[in-house]
Amino acid sequence: MKTTLRGLANLTYNDADSIIIGGNQQQFAQFIRRYDGCGPIAAANIWLYLNFSYGLRLKIIEPPLNRAKIIALANNIYDQMPPLHLYRCSSSQQIVSFKLFGRRFTITPSLGVYSARRFRRDMKRLAQLFGQPIVEHVFRQHYFNADLTHWYRFIAGHLQAGRPIALLNRFHAVEMKFSQLFSDRTVNEQFKLHWVVVIGIEALDDDYLLSVMSWGGIAKISLKSLWQANRHKCFFRAQMIAYQVKQQAENQSN
To answer: Is the pTM of this model over 0.70?
Structure first.
């Protein structure tokens, strides 16, 4: 069984020879924004989806989509959702590193949007900026009793209701397979210290396969691997928040 957000075609556009879905942090002009812009890009993708799913009444962005419009929105959101910078860095050559006991260590210039609490706070700020109240649904994971089906029910239920889900995986890395739309070429990436937007989930024999928006394409992640990497962890667990427009939430409750 597969559950996918409806209306995702509204978030696609042609860019050179590729079809892109949503924002891509690699399209930021500044190096530091390309380095730590996954949180603001995830927020931009959620607002894009809410904008189109609510009949363009949010007036955040007008169709047709293109790179310039999406990056303008993403830069605006980045300014309202600033990642935590540790030091000024305008190129990869300025990233601080040092050698100790024969090993090379790197000091990251930014911790990004490092927690769901920070993301949620800035999404509320954006809701005020856009003049559109939103409702959040936070995944309340208790590390002693949250089994895999608990994760699945949260994700599938919100996707079925038309609510995109922001997902942050912090220090417990898992594999993600990334590809551009309509491409057979996949690239194995490490899903760690990164925000994505969950747009689909598929039940397999003994696992669930997540589809997430990232870098202007779609990545696949094993939910079982994500669950196993984060279960029984007291700190820095994966975090999820589903979003919808407040008016939509009121209509669904009536």
So the answer is: yes
What is the residue type of 250?
A: E
| 111 vs 224: CA distance, rounded Å | 26
User: Which residue, 82, 76, 71, is CA-closest to 39?
Assistant: 82
pLDDT tens for each residue of 53-74 = 876 666 778 888 999 999 999 9
Joined tokens for residue 168: 């942050």
Domains and CATH numbers, the chain: 8-84+113-253 (3.90.70)
Alpha-helical runs (H) found in 170-219: none
**Cβ-proximal residues to 56 (8 Å cutoff; 6+ apart), any chain:** 62, 63
Burial of 90 (C-beta count, 10 Å sphere; 0-12/13-18/19+): exposed
